[in-house]
């Protein structure tokens, strides 16, 4: 059984820090895939540019923050979704090689590569015929 | 074991429910389900603007039509990246086909519609038809 990603994601409660652009913060939706070599996280962060992303990995805790720049001017006629910053935290049970974490962003989708530490990768044990 | 087999979602309803359940941010908390994608619409004197959050799409994946002056239709499909082996631990994002139509609050000039797509946010700028633009009435002093 592969154990690994415990995900007690926390809803960010803190609002109104000086640099936030919006009152509300939303929890972005994520897919998580685990392969032999790495964990892959895909997150939907529409409206977030690369420069407004803040990703930290510390103490097995991965924190992803995306700031959304204000948009919409003029008179609102239909208001079906709210706009705000994104924040989500994952606790990563697997040992991750923090130095090698990489991230890319394309069309509002964040892809995070979390390579597993060498010692945790599954190894094939060679059996000698004697 | 957390792994689940991915089942492409064909029906819109499920997609919609997923969206509402996970985001819980539509309709200003009224709890009313909205179609996918949720749209924001606003206007100024000259144009109507429609915006939708469509992360992971490209403009080429979308079909956008304005017909009959005020009928907007947006359709597209989003596919999940595929991986050999491994296991999905979490699948919150929605995939599949969608089509959303909307009757605009006024006629627009469909030849002048401009679509832009930035960081997964689609924005349509639609110039209002001349007859629905507000006209300033000149008042002559006599």
UniProtKB/TrEMBL annotation, chain A:
Domain SHSP positions: 21-130
Annotated region (Disordered) at 1-22
What InterPro entries would the database entry show?
A-crystallin/Hsp20_dom, HSP20-like_chaperone, Small_HSP
Membership in a protein family: Belongs to the small heat shock protein (HSP20) family.
Full protein name = Spore protein SP21
Species, as recorded:
Rubripirellula reticaptiva
Automatic annotation (TrEMBL), chain B:
Record-linked Pfam families: HSP20 (PF00011)
| Location of the SHSP domain | 30-142
| CDD domains named in the record | ACD_sHsps-like
> Residue span of the signal peptide, if any?
none
Question: Out of the domains of life, which is the source?
Answer: Bacteria
What family, per the record? Belongs to the small heat shock protein (HSP20) family.
- State what protein this is by name: Spore protein SP21
Gene transcribed to yield this protein: hspA_1
